[in-house]
Design a protein that fits this description.
The structure is a homodimer. By secondary structure, chain A is α/β, with parallel strands linked by helices. The first copy, chain A, has helices at residues 13-22, 38-48, 57-62, 78-87, 102-115, 129-139, 174-190, 281-293, 303-317; strands spanning 4-9, 28-34, 52-54, 68-71, 91-95, 119-122, 146-154, 196-203, 209-217, 223-229, 238-242, 245-249, 258-263, 269-272. The first copy, chain A, folds into 2 domains: 4-125 and 280-300, 3-Layer(aba) Sandwich (Rossmann fold); 130-275 and 309-317, Dihydrodipicolinate Reductase, domain 2 (2-Layer Sandwich).
């Protein structure tokens, strides 16, 4: 089978993890990397034995040999970078959060449809085998009707202002960086957007949200109870509660190796699949499947859902006292 | 030591549990019970060997031999029953939720102060030895500054309309019945009322809230993430997350037998004290201590906090589409 040829846009931490995990996909080949400087492109390419290295994202996008580009820049750059790549005819896998705003997400999606290229948000959780099993359990009615979802994605880092994590200029803060995991989890489980959302975000010394929590309400009265933080460590479990039982995803639920099915009155059922690398290859398998099948979006991570997630996050942070440069 | 003489107002399920647990308090004596009918008063008194049994709450309140009355009626009756007892000069331990509304709580507290009698809400959690240890750990700074509290108190019962649990006429629903546990827990941990609260409640077939969730925001940006239900079972854990570690209270956190202290970089510390009966005697020990010390309220469960809890619950349920008869 002919290999699918990847380009890597940006050389930050997540780009390193991604390229390492690509080795677990036999029909993936990294042919080029683009960075803002030749020096960092060369360093990254030397480390991972990548043949072509570009000193600009634009040059990477124009490389005729590249089929699909993985965008690993800070959130604030996703729309600009993604649109440039798609206009150059490339398929795009774009790191989460998809964009900064729903408006940017709409622009991304419009370009993907106009250019007829594949586009997917890299919300890695939903491509794990554990998640496929969880969705199967729910679909089969094993826990009855889902009434409540709990999920936490909270960590405590020691950040400096120049890093992206808490820099609002780069879309930093807990909502876009890790809140997307819990909001995306609820969205996946319920399979529809919430009818309402409320929440809080605590804006800290760097002007971004260091921790937050949100409640999502669904049309049948079901709820999602979600928290996220970059400056408060927590146990990162998720629970799905139904009328007949529940499913637990232990810490770290966003990179799940195990799911525990607890049906009322029955023995527990455990599904496990040990993590390979960082687990980022699961989403690459999905990209490959879509590209080989000629799909322009993934049924597991559709573009309409990426848009809805950004709309929910716009709504959640609207009352908070900060703005990103990309905000209108 | 002379015994403290209790009267039991109402003969429902919780009254039975309470009287059973009173046997674990050597200096407590149940001298009378009052019910709406002679039949139920007699049945209860026979079961627990109680000398005096009254066919009205009023007769119980007027019994000169009774020092302190435990009020076990549905929430909607607490204020009326409590005020009657206090006006008859009795000390009162009133089941949670304290009242239906903050306005009723104010009236209760005003009567307690005017009559100079002891009054306490029976929010049992905070009288457990495990909780004393948890509060000590926090006070000693072992987990640093508390930034986030998670707590769930969710159960799934099969209810009939005529029962109190989901009957809005009797103050039924998840917020007042079990939401008070998680809201009271957050209040105890932070030691102050929230500056804001948001939440949802799903109003079901009986016209009351079957499940809900709320977020509380504190003045330093700390958060409480809380859920409660009578028709959705969940794992009833609580977590207290600080800047240096966290404390976990396993299921069932509201009746805690164990607390686990996890300080970053150190071995876990476990504090355990096995449950005696239903654990309701711990609050009785506190009532006895206060009565013997001549206190008119408990430092562990002060009246101002009971009022603040009702104010928070008023605020949380204000947007919900139901009203209790006691609502103004």
């Amino acid at each position: 089978m002919e290999k699918i040829r990847w380009g890597i846009l940006s050389t930050g931490s997540i780009a390193n993890s991604f390229v390492k995990d690509l080795q677990h996909v036999p029909d993936a080949e990294v042919v080029a990397v683009g960075s803002r400087t030749q020096e960092s492109a060369d360093k990254f390419a030397d480390t991972y034995n990548i043949p072509k290295r570009y000193a600009s994202y634009d040059a990477l996008a124009k490389d005729a040999d590249v089929e699909v580009i993985y965008i690993a820049t800070p959130h604030s750059m996703h729309a600009e970078n993604g649109i440039m790549c798609m206009r150059a005819g490339k398929a795009v896998l774009c790191e989460k959060a998809f964009t900064i705003t729903a408006s940017e997400a709409e622009q991304m999606i419009a370009v993907a449809r106009k250019e007829k290229v594949f586009l997917m948000e890299a919300l890695v959780t939903r491509h794990f085998p554990v998640i496929h099993k969880v969705l199967e359990w729910i679909k089969d009615g094993l826990i009855g009707e889902v009434r409540m979802v709990h999920a936490n994605r909270c960590a405590r880092g020691q950040f400096r202002q120049e890093q992206r994590h808490l820099n609002p200029e780069l879309g930093g803060g807990s909502l876009l960086d890790v809140g997307i995991y819990v909001i995306g989890f609820a969205s996946m489980i319920y399979g529809k957007p919430p009818v309402d959302a409320v929440g809080y975000g605590h804006v800290g010394e760097f002007g971004s949200d260091e921790q937050g929590a949100t409640l999502l309400q669904y049309d049948n009265g079901a709820l999602a109870v979600l928290s996220f933080a970059l400056r408060t460590a927590a146990v990162n479990e998720a629970y799905i509660y139904g009328t007949k039982g529940h499913i637990k995803l232990p810490d770290l639920f966003a990179v799940p190796e195990k799911a525990i099915l607890c049906v009322d009155g029955e023995d527990k059922v455990i599904f496990e699949e040990a993590l390979v690398g960082n687990g980022l290859h699961y989403q690459v398998l999905e990209v490959h499947r879509c590209l080989r099948d000629g799909l322009l979006e993934s049924p597991r991570m559709p573009l309409q859902e990426s848009l809805q997630l950004m709309q929910t996050m716009d709504k959640i942070r609207a009352p908070w006292s900060f703005r990103y440069p990309n905000d209108n």
